[in-house]
Amino acid sequence: MRQLISFLLLACALSANAQQPVGTWSVIPKAGVSVANISGAEIYYGLASEMSKVKGKYNARFVGGVEAEWQALPTTSFSLGVLYAQQGCRYSDFKDNNGTFERSDFIGFSRMREKLDYLCLPLMVNQYVAPGLAVKVGVQPSFLCKSEVTITTSKFEHQADGSVNVGKSQRSVTDTKDMRHKMDVAIPVGVSYEYLNVLLDVRYQLGLLKLYKDDQLPSEKNRAFYITVGYKFNL
Known about the structure:
By secondary structure, this protein is mainly beta. It contains one helix and 15 strands.
């Protein structure tokens, strides 16, 4: 037991010495990948008697920005950031018979994406548990910059000779910003590791607010992983 206590005290001392002196500031520009989804995102299609659905899936996009960190205690710091995060989701390809009983013709939907871009202001508490290793939790208000749905459609027509005529694919972009709330709030939790001022940061963003203004529409919420690499400039 005495050896265990000695080891824990040594680990705490090393952790404290590995961090910036109390009261100092750092600036951390960072960039990486936002792997995002929308909980509750579903698309229904087909005849009313036999409806099918596709659910939103995680989609990789961009996240980047800058954070400022203040060392409040030997093993505790606070950070405030400004990030541009591209979120949303993607859907698997599907075919729809356009709501009719005519099964010979159908519309193919592919590369469908819901794209939600936010300006985020994460406020984090960072607790260093080992040299360079921190666990973190905070709150992140976000402001909607862009909301759109992109999709490619193709019409398939069966001919009398048994062949299939594929129409020209059409790519469409629909602005959905007016349908969405302009603000979201998330709880970010994660870990980071710093080595030679290079900082690897992984966070999970749990969105708290519904995305649609209309209560009759599905109760969708943001979900995302932010994986970033940054460089800490000590001031």
